Amino acid sequence: MKYLSGYSLIIMLFLQFFQSCGEQHHEEEYTDEFTYETEAAVETIRELSEVRKIFYDLYSPVEAGNIFDQIGAVYDPYLLNPPENATNYNTSSKIALNLGVYGADLSFCRLFGQTQESINYLTVIYRLAGDLGISGELIEETDEIIKQALVSHPDTIFNIATRLYLNAEKQLKESNRESATVLILTGGWIEALYITTSFYDPLEDEDELIIQLAGQKYSLERLISLMNNFRNDPAVLEYIFKLKPLAEEFSEIEIFFDEGGVDIDTISRTITATSEPELKFSHDNLEKIADLVASIRYDIIK
Fold it and tell me: How many angstroms separate the CA atoms of 178 and 188, rounded?
């Protein structure tokens, strides 16, 4: 058995899902007269490539739906952070964290065709982005225009949200507030992991879910490494310490691939698994991970 490096597995797990997501939207044909939808559909692939660079080879919050799809999740609105909670977030760090949380929640709703709920979450995301100081034409769009577009084409949710997170990152970087981008990513990652662990049942045979869950070991390592670049921000430092116990639990999981079980494309810079990994873990370990994630997530959304 050959051990696959952490950074390589991040790319394998996340870029592989990104490619399948991109292919799906590339095949869509839109005939709606709403100009923004048509333009957004055409440019979705290019902009997602930019988001991939922005989020350091980790999922942006709006792409979390790919993970939920892989594990065979079912729609449960009670797993999500209610939109009305957004009024409780008054500090920039809480706003940034929950901007990530709501992005993952929107992705969950979109996956199951929950158009009205998706509209509610997208509206909240716009408002939080405005509270964080993000401006521009995307923020200035009226709720009515957004609703009209979503009724015609639910996939507009993906296009608009992708552009919003791209726009947010650019403006935060220009204003030397990149630590807020890291908090957005942290909130989205925790919410996606929380939803994923909610479907874990040690009494059932859930190989795909366990594979997806185990792979987050390396994305967490990458996330903490990224956060360490901004540890001078008290909020980022706080969550570094909160994530350390989770990283310790993830370190107990071992992931192996057969030699030759990974296909590396140096041109497109993607790594694809060609065989199922062998995992060494305990169900007690996974349950502890689920408990820690729930605790961190509660702290974020309270």
Answer: 16
Structure-token pair, residue 62: 């709006």
- For 42, residues 6+ apart whose C-beta sits below 8 A from its C-beta are none
**106-147 per-position pLDDT tens digit:** 989 988 988 889 888 988 998 899 899 887 655 555 455 566
The Cα angle at residue 198 between residues 11 and 106, in degrees rounded to 5: 65
How far is the C-alpha of 26 from the C-alpha of 43, rounded, in Å? 9
For the chain, the C-alpha Rg in angstroms (whole number) is 19
User: Are 272 and 265 a contacting pair, CB within 8 Å?
Assistant: yes
Sign of the CA dihedral with 243 first, then 194, 204, and 70 last: negative
| Full domain range(s) for residue 65 | 2-301
CA 44, CA 121: separation in Å to the nearest integer? 20
CA–CA gap between residue 188 and residue 105 (Å, rounded): 9
For residue 262, the SS3 value is strand
Total domains in the fold of the chain = 1
Per-residue pLDDT at 161 exceeds 80: no
